[in-house]
Amino acid sequence: MIIEQIKEISEGIFEEIRAFRRDMHQHPELSFQEVETQKKVRVYLEKIGVDSIETCATTGLVALIKGKNPAKKTVALRADIDALPINELNEVPYKSQNQGVMHACGHDVHTSSLLGAATILTQLKSEFEGTIKLVVQPGEEKLPGGASIMIKEGVLNNPDVDAMVGQHVMPLIDAGKVGFRSGLYMASADEIYITIHGKGGHGAHPHMNIDPVTIAAQVITALQQVVSRSAKPAMPSVLSIGKIIGLGATNVIPSKVEMEGTFRTFNEKWRMEAHEKIVQITTQIAEAFGATCDVEVRKGYPFLNNDEQKTETARKAAIEYLGEENVEELDIWPAGEDFAYFSQEVPSCFYRLGIRNEEKGITSMLHTPTFDIDEKALKVGAGLMAYIAITELGEA
Q1: What is the model's pLDDT at position 396?
Q2: What is the pTM of this model?
Q3: What pLDDT, on a 0 to 100 scale, did the predictor assign at position 395?
Q4: Which of 94, 139, 140, 201 would bridge 32 by S-S if both were Cys, CB 3.0 to 4.6 A apart?
Q5: Residues 36 and 117 in one domain
Q6: Distance (Å, whole) CA 112 – CA 396
Q7: 318-335 pLDDT tens trace
Q8: Please, which residues bridge with residue 80 across strands?
């Protein structure tokens, strides 16, 4: 059976895939700066003998693996390659050698798993009909997102993609397991930038000033009503202000206060309405107290929607490959992910790869300086992605 073949190949290439992951982890590169990572991925793809490799989005790559009757159907598999501006605190042999840069979101795992899946699929080309498109994407962590750039440059065409699959590590799921969710899964992610302009002066004479600090406090409190009173209770929404700068002192009222935050939801119509409310509330409160303001809501990634049919196909494949006890149902996840751009264009499935191992102390969440994985997850990451691709090619 094809499953046994995949698992056998996956076991055979594990050390090589783990070595690639460790090397990539040691040499992380920030978004849209992944020059050396791109070179290493290209060398690997050339070595395993894919049918073509092209550059896309400057530091990204697109490669094809053609099975029998390649025009029948095309399934795209995606991995991201950029790292985060985080200083790693793990004391491991593969610790980041680039000070202040770290693969704290598992993109090294995604890329290594994709290369493992590619190795499996090149060895099993005679076993499936259709084409596999490998999408090696830069800049997931930074607007405008590498996915949007790759789409503009035609990554979903020549040949046209019929279905797309992506996976992402999940520290809440044990290694050896995976998770799926059909329909709405991850939120749109917008950035909020607000500056309140007042009139600074001595803290002992507030009547002679226009205090942007107290006005900012009013704005922060009022903005919470965008979610609690304007959003429908059934529509998940998050509005958080995470940064406030007011350079006054114990006896100094500053002339301005700067704030930054995020707004996230799962509906485009409500998303645009909320943007208007954020601007309206901030502007009117500032004016009521004699201040002015600058408000920018910077539109980020759209919400991620998992196609029900493609997700069900992938879920069934995962049950066949791992056993039903190792396949979990996911709740909605209000983080943002630029794979959402792909899901807006073609029927897609974005699932979660378990990496947790409490016995080994591997429990840190994403985007933390102690994030790490149980590397046995790489076997599932490579093998299951290959099997999902083959299964999807076999669907009508």
Answers
A1: 65
A2: 0.94
A3: 86
A4: 139
A5: yes
A6: 29
A7: 999 999 999 999 999 999
A8: 137
CATH number at residue 283: 3.30.70.360
Does pLDDT of 1 surpass 90? no
Please report, for the domain that includes residue 148, its CATH number: 3.40.630.10
Number of structural domains found in the chain: 2
Residue type, 18: R
Q: What is the DSSP string of 225-275?
A: HIIIIIS-TTS-EEEEEEEEE---BTTEE-SEEEEEEEEEES-HHHHHHHH
Q: Spell out the SS3 assignment of 320-377.
A: HHHCHHHEEECCCECCCCCHHHHHHHCCEEEEEEEEEEHHHCECCCCCCCCCCCCCCH
Q: Are residues 37 and 134 in the same domain?
A: yes
- Identify the domain boundary among 285, 301, 317: 301
Contact 391, 313 (CB under 8 A): yes
For helices 2-26 and 308-322, angle between their N-to-C axes, nearest 10 degrees: 100
Tally DSSP H helices, then E strands, for the chain. 9, 16
- Residue range 166-212, pLDDT digits in tens: 999 999 999 999 999 999 999 999 999 999 999 999 999 999 999 99
* One domain, residues 278 and 330: no
pLDDT, tens digit (0-9, with 9 covering 90-100), for 114-135: 999 999 999 999 999 999 999 9
CA 311 to chain centre: 18
Q: Which residue has the tokens 């491991």?
A: 92
Which amino acid is residue 286, in one-letter code? A
pLDDT in tens, 268-298: 999 999 999 999 999 999 999 999 999 999 9
Q: Is 342 helix (H, G, I), strand (E, B) or coil?
A: helix
Q: What pLDDT band is residue 369 in, cutting at 50, 70 and 90?
A: very high
Q: Which residue shows structure tokens 């073609």?
A: 346
Beta bridge partners of 65: 132
Distance CA 158, CA 376 (A): 35
Instruction: Classify residue 271 as exposed, middle or buried by CB count within 10 Å of its CB (0-12, 13-18, 19+).
Output: buried
Determine the structural domain holding residue 193 and report its residue range.
Answer: 188-301
Residue with tokens 């309405």: 273
Domain termination site, one of 245, 266, 301: 301
Check if the beta carbon of residue 30 is closer than 8 Å to that of residue 87: no
The amino acid occupying position 227 is V
Q: What is the DSSP letter of 20?
A: H
Q: Are residues 244 and 322 in the same domain?
A: no
51 burial via Cβ count (<10 Å: 0-12, 13-18, 19+) = middle
Helix/strand/coil for 135:
strand
Residue with tokens 């840069």: 101
